[in-house]
Structure formats: C-alpha cells, structure tokens
Amino acid sequence: MNRVVFLMIVSMSLTTALKAQEKQSDLKNKRASYLSKQMSISLTSAYRLVEISDKYVESSNRIYHDSSLTSDQKVKRLQFLQQERNNQIEAISATEGKLDGKDKLAPLFGLPAKK
Prior knowledge:
By secondary structure, the chain is an all-alpha fold. Helix content is about 80%, strand content about 0%.
C-alpha cells in the first residue's frame, strides 16, 4: 500500500514538473516570436536572444545571492557577465545583417547605442 501511494506521489510530481517545463518553453517561444516580429529578425536569432537574456538573468541572480563572494568580487563577476552578454548580442546583430551593430537591440537589453 505504501508503495502505491509513493508511486502516485512521484507520478504526480513528475506530471507537475513536465507541465511547468511545457509552460516555460511555450513562454520562451512566445517571447522569441514577439521579438522576431518587433525587430524584423529571424526566429532563430530571436530565440538565441531570449536564451542569452534568460542565462544572463539566472547567472546574475546566482552571483548576487552567493554569500561566499565579497561585494567587489560580485561587481567584477557581474561586469564580466554583462560584457559576455553584450558580445553575444553583438554577434547576433552582425549575423542578422539587417541590424546596424547592436543599435536596434540596445534598448531591449539596456545596452548603450553606438555613436
């Protein structure tokens, strides 16, 4: 009897986790689709931008909440992370061809526009 209850609980937990993953994936696809239309870029590039943005947020939150780091270490790691994100965005901008550097993407990601 205990085994049956345990298996039911595990099954329900897995179902809930899968539904949450589906929701997250659906949201990511919607964000990419919207970005693609708004920026007139390919869906593939838009999806990569969404992934870069999500990874940046996740990594910066991890750094911010890491109690083993000093404030200076956090600032340096966040600056490095931001530069890495900027470089990835610029690479996508360059491959899109329609974009002039990162100018069109700058407002979306809080980047300074090129002068």
